């Protein structure tokens, strides 16, 4: 098992996994991933097992305590000196789920954010996933202003 920073050579696998894990109205495009990998490469990690990409997590650094829709559309809003690490996507291939891989990815991101002396981590999720993120210390901030993909999201954040 190997957790590492993603590169453009991972683009096909990342895009394919995104389209398996998220419905079309929520999934990031190949072009979006290119922009993310170029704008915040040190905040995009992949998990490999025997050379196969089985999961990833990514998100820009920002001074926003919550995720705004324009952040999904504009990777240039990333601020290396920002106070908050965001999570835009956490995905694990269906055949690799329920083995702790998503937990490894989220814990890795949290530890990196702590090491970089961020104030915390922010993400949005559907109501069904609130208990999942609470087990890592995230608090439910209520319904998000984000309407990404036309969905209703919950603001979640963990403060260090």
TrEMBL record:
GO molecular function list: N-acetyltransferase activity
Record PROSITE patterns: GNAT
Keywords: Acyltransferase, Ribonucleoprotein, Ribosomal protein, Transferase
InterPro entries referenced in this protein's UniProt entry, alphabetically: Acyl_CoA_acyltransferase, GNAT_dom, SNAT-like
Presence of the UniProt keyword Transmembrane in the record: no
Superkingdom in the source lineage: Bacteria
Residue span, N-acetyltransferase domain: 1-159
One Pfam entry name: Acetyltransf_1
CDD domains named in the record: NAT_SF
A cellular-component GO term for this protein: ribosome
PANTHER family linked: SEROTONIN N-ACETYLTRANSFERASE
Protein name as catalogued: GNAT family N-acetyltransferase
Organism: Chitinophaga sancti
């Amino acid at each position: 098992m190997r957790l590492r920073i993603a590169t453009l050579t991972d683009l096909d696998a990342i895009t394919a996994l995104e389209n398996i894990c998220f419905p079309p109205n929520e999934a990031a495009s190949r072009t979006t991933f290119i922009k993310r990998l170029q704008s915040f490469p040190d905040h995009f990690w992949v998990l490999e097992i025997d050379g196969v990409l089985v999961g990833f997590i990514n998100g820009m650094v920002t001074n926003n305590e919550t995720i705004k829709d324009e952040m999904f559309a504009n990777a240039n809003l990333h601020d290396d000196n920002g106070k908050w690490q965001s999570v835009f996507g956490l995905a694990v291939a269906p055949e690799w789920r329920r083995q702790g891989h998503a937990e490894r990815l989220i814990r890795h991101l949290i530890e990196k954010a702590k090491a970089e002396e961020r104030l915390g981590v922010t993400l949005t999720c559907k109501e069904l996933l609130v208990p999942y993120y609470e087990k890592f210390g995230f608090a439910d901030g209520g319904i998000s202003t984000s309407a990404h993909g036309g969905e209703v999201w919950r603001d979640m954040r963990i403060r260090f």
